[in-house]
Write a structure and sequence with these properties.
Elements: E1 2-7, H1 11-22, E2 27-33, H2 36-46, E3 50-53, H3 62-71, E4 77-82, H4 87-95, E5 100-103, H5 108-119, E6 124-125, H6 127-134, H7 143-151, H8 158-165, H9 169-183, H10 188-197
Parallel strand pairs: 1-2, 1-3, 3-4, 4-5, 5-6
Length: 201
């Protein structure tokens, strides 16, 4: 019997996935959680065979949980299940040595098959994601520039960005100037759109 833990911040999806996996005779869902920090604590306690983690959750992200589990050297298979087909997330997942990375728009039986494959000591990565990463133009932005550019989607002003990153407004303007220069764009919105299209953020 394969014990499975689910961490997904959308309660409805969490419940649906748990029901789906429990239909398999050789699967047992031993716990679910919508908060990343609580999920990490439960996984450490329950020690399931497989932990299925969403990336963006309150508390800790799925990638942060994966890194913590690897540092603890727990013998747990880790599958990232997310809506984000971003090359940076995928590369971070590979660094965290996850066993699988699947997109939520995949057919439901893909997750079941992936768990069975991973339990046989193989890895499973969504082919659309792999293709996307291979076709991604090299990202010219630094990690901080990527963070600031991603924040531009919700922070409308330089002042808001400065407060978010605990930097001066002048420093933020310098970062944005560098971002526009590296991306060859003329506005913040254009830079965000280009970066998302090329999976830089």
């Amino acid at each position: 019997m394969v014990s499975i833990f689910l961490a997904e911040d959308q309660q409805m999806l969490n419940s649906a996935l748990a029901m789906l996996l429990d239909l398999e005779d050789d699967f047992s869902v031993v716990g679910t959680e919508t908060d990343g920090q609580a999920a990490l604590e439960k996984v450490i306690t329950l020690k399931p065979d497989v932990a299925i983690l969403d990336i963006e959750m309150p508390g800790l992200s799925g990638l942060e949980i994966a890194k913590q589990l690897r540092l603890m050297k727990l013998d747990i298979k880790i599958i990232i299940l997310t809506t984000f087909a971003r090359s940076k997330y995928f590369k971070d997942a590979l660094t965290a040595r996850v066993n699988g990375y699947l997109l939520k728009d995949s057919p439901s039986d893909s997750l079941v098959n992936a768990i069975k494959t991973i339990m046989n000591s193989d890895t499973v990565f969504d082919p659309k994601l792999v293709t996307s990463v291979l076709n991604t133009v090299d990202n010219p932005l630094t990690d901080r520039e990527q963070e600031i550019l991603a924040a531009l989607k919700t922070c409308a002003s330089t002042k808001e960005l400065a407060q978010k990153f605990f930097l001066s407004e002048g420093t933020i303007r310098n970062y944005i100037s560098s971002i526009l220069s590296k991306t060859g764009t003329r506005s913040r919105l254009e830079a965000v759109n280009l970066a998302e299209k090329r999976n830089w953020i």
